C-alpha cells in the first residue's frame, strides 16, 4: 500500500513534488503517524463533543480510525511546561493507539522534549521505524 509522503516542517506538514511533477509516495506508515497526531481539527479536544471533528471523519465508519488529534489540540491550548509534557505524551499515545489495535504496529514508544521555548519535539519509536516531529507549542497559561 502506498500513501502520499507527508513530512514535517517548521510551519506544518508538507508534501514533495518530484522532478516529473508527481507527488512523492511512501510505502511505510509515516504519513499515518503524522496525520494521527496533527491531522484532525485543532479545535477538537478528542472528547465526547464531536461537533468540532475534522470533516473527513464523517466518511469513516470505524471510530478507531477517525482523526481526533488530541496532541495537536493540547499544543494549541495548554502552556509549554515540563508538567504538561506528560499530557502531550499521553495524547500522542492515544492518537496512535488505533495503529496497535488494527495490527499496523506492535509497539509504540513516545518521547517528548522541549528543545527551545514554545517548541516541542516528539520522537515516535515503533517496530516499523522512528519519526521525529518538531511543532510549535502555542498554548498559553
**Strand sequence of the main sheet, in spatial order?**
5-6-7
For the record, give the distance between the C-alpha atoms at the N and C termini, rounded to a whole number. 43 Å
Query: What integer is the average pLDDT?
Result: 88
Q: Rg from C-alpha positions?
A: 15 Å
H-E string: EEEEHHHEEE
**Strand residue percentage:** 15-25%
Number of helices: 3
Task: Report helical residue fraction.
Answer: 25-40%
- Domains, number: 1
Oligomer: single chain
Overall SS class: alpha+beta
Task: Identify the overall geometry.
Answer: globular
**Uncertain runs with pLDDT below 50, 5 residues or more?**
none
- The number of strands is 7
Largest sheet: 3 strands, antiparallel
Characterize this entry briefly:
The protein is of the alpha+beta class. The protein has helices at about 30-40, 70-75, 80-100, and strands at about 5, 5-10, 10-15, 25, 110-115, 120-125, 130-135. Strand 2 (about 5-10) and strand 3 form a beta hairpin.
Would you give an account of this structure?
The protein has 141 residues and is α+β, with helices and mostly antiparallel strands. The protein has one domain. Helix content is 26%, strand content 25%. It has a 3-stranded antiparallel sheet with strand order 5-6-7, covered by helices on one side. Strands 1-4 form a two-stranded antiparallel ribbon. Strands 2-3 form a two-stranded antiparallel sheet. Strand 6 (119-126) and strand 7 form a beta hairpin. It is globular.
Amino acid at each position: 500500500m502506498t500513501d502520499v509522503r507527508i513530512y514535517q516542517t517548521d510551519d506544518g506538514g508538507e508534501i514533495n513534488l518530484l522532478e516529473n511533477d508527481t507527488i512523492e509516495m511512501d510505502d511505510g506508515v509515516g504519513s499515518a503517524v503524522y496525520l494521527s497526531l496533527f491531522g484532525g481539527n485543532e479545535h477538537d479536544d478528542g472528547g465526547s463533543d464531536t461537533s468540532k471533528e475534522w470533516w473527513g471523519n464523517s466518511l469513516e465508519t470505524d471510530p478507531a480510525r477517525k482523526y481526533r488529534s488530541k496532541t495537536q489540540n493540547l499544543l494549541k491550548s495548554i502552556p509549554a511546561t515540563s508538567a504538561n509534557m506528560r499530557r502531550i505524551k499521553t495524547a500522542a499515545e492515544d492518537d496512535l493507539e488505533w495503529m496497535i489495535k488494527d495490527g499496523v504496529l506492535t509497539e509504540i514508544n513516545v518521547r517528548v522534549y522541549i528543545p527551545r521555548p514554545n517548541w516541542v519535539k516528539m520522537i515516535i519509536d515503533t517496530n516499523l521505524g522512528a519519526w521525529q516531529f518538531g511543532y510549535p507549542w502555542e498554548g498559553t497559561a
